[in-house]
Amino acid sequence: MKRSVTIGAVIQARMGSSRLPGKVLRPIAGRPLLDHVVGRLASLRAAVTVIVATSTQPRDDAIAERCAALGVPCFRGSEQDVLARYAECAAAHGFDHVIRLTADNPFTDVEELDRLVELHLREDNDYTHSFGVMPLGVGAEIFTRAALERSAREGHAPNHREHVNEYIQENPDRFRIGRLTVAADKNRPDLSLTVDTEEDYARACRLASRAAGTWLTTHEAIAAC
Length: 225
Description:
alpha/beta, Spore Coat Polysaccharide Biosynthesis Protein SpsA, Chain A
């Protein structure tokens, strides 16, 4: 009998953002930003293990403590070599596939994330993403562990180590790559829902407060922007 695949939803998080330090634990609608990222994943249909991947820097102890409070596993690795952090996390937990999310995106589109996982598995891709169509900050990407490990072995440029996906994107002939298509009413790449500046943070607070205890949908976010 063929065993079922294991999928990790790994959220990268650190306190040392240069433009907005500590943003991942800033409150949004009464809860830390990280809580929103983790909480949305509870509605995924796909069976995934949620893990927060932070650094070994002392300042990121606060993230580990928040993970403990949430009951979410926390993996700790290199602060600067994010690619290695992901590859090591995948190996440590035995994941076959890894969804990569970031802790500054509180409005991930979970409906499209489920479709992304389905597409990735159905097409037997090495890497599948949903970027460049929906607003910045609501899309996601998924890698096979083998693709992550190959990237970690072969991708030596600084941008490869920092951005995780860029070795694959720069070498499409070496990987089977898929891209999710979404409905036209979510096609707003001109909008940004990520949290990278004070202005972004203020917008996220405003949008989250409109949700009244529920998770804001992409359609609702687009309409409110």
